[in-house]
Fold:
Amino acid sequence: MKLIRRVFDFKGAPILTAVFIVLVIAESSRQMRKRKQPRAKRLMINSAVAIPSFSLLRFLLLPVLVKLATKNRHWKIGANYLYNAPQVLKGLTAFLMMDYTNYLWHILNHKVPFLWRFHLVHHCDPDLDVTTAIRFHFGELISSVFFRSVFVVLTGATALQVLLYEILFEIETQFHHSNWKLPFHLEKKLSKIIVTPRMHGIHHSIIHEEADSNYAVVFSIWDRLHHTARLNVPQNLVVTGVPSYSNLDELTAVYLLKLPFTKIRGWDAMNEVRDARTLLPGTINLAE
Structure:
């Protein structure tokens, strides 16, 4: 499709590449969490997992969503076809609705056992940095096509709005997965509007109750509205990953690609780490 090539390939992809490089440099100069694996090894593993997923994103997900949005100009189904308003306002409304539905999709990936099989590949990353933002199993991408297709139609988003949202979605995903230590007071203000590295780092915690929070992708308001926000976890106590998948030698690219099709282990209780979550006087956290 010409629109995908013009908007995503020629404009979006270079922007995403530039953002990725900038974040790699930023998290190198101001690292927030100490690494468990060498960066080069992580990049190789996460890139290998990402290749089939990004191929499906470009040649399956985006064409399907754009095709449906284009067809919907004749069907006129969805919220944005129920009222008259300037295109800028409709674009903002579509963006908010698509972002909210991705918040819901993220929750489903944690709550539905079948979907968790695939999302687990993302969460069992022992470290959290910008390369984690590309570590998604192709099965999760395929599953998302059905869910996101329904809501593209129900929102009434145009094809251009779908592509612009996807680019901003990917930029924000890279940002909040990064290991970039922003000045605390700046991040505290940003977290009131968008998802930040400290906020999303809590979501990747090995403590199940903490991983069961902060589901938003772009705007943090969805977690606040649904009381799924958790901001009072000291960053120096956050350990990322999934306890039952903590063997670094096991987590190869081949293993991760076949992981959803194997017997999935339970989360495992981490009482000794959970007990350490009691906030000490003076501990800095985003909820202050």
Q: What stands out?
A: The two ends are 48 Å apart (CA to CA). The longest helix spans residues 39-75.
